[in-house]
Amino acid sequence: QVQLVESGGGLVQSGGSLRLSCAVSTRVFSINTMGWYRRAPGKQRELVAVVPSSGSSGNTNFADSVKGRFTISRDNAKNTVYLQMSYLEAADTAVYYCNAIGYYCADLGCYLKGGLFNTWGQGTLVTVSS
Length: 130
Fold this sequence. Notes:
The chain is mostly beta strands and about 130 residues long. The chain is about 0% helix and about 55% strand.
C-alpha cells in the first residue's frame, strides 16, 4: 500500500498564507501525477491543483478559484508535492487531500515497474477566518 503523509494545515486569517506538504513515504517505482483536492463545508470534493512528474515547470492545472493565489510544486527527489496558498479567503476553508498516481514496484528491490496506483492522503484541515 502506498502511504501519503500530509502536513501544513492550520488556522489562518484572511489574506494570510499556508504551505501544504505531501510526501509519498512508501517506496514506489515512479510517481506520475501529484495533486491536491479539497472538500469545503457543505460541498463535494473538488480539484485544487495538479502537477505532472516534470515538476512545477511542467503543465499544471488549477481550479479557477485559486488561480493566481496558489502555487503547486514538486520535489521529485523527496517524492513530495507542495501547495503554496497565498491571499487566503474564507472560501478556501476545507479539508485538503493529497493525491498521487504512479506505479508500484514489481519486486522487492524496486527495479521493475508494477501496476498503477492511485492513492489519497488522510487530509489536512485549512481554516481561514475572516
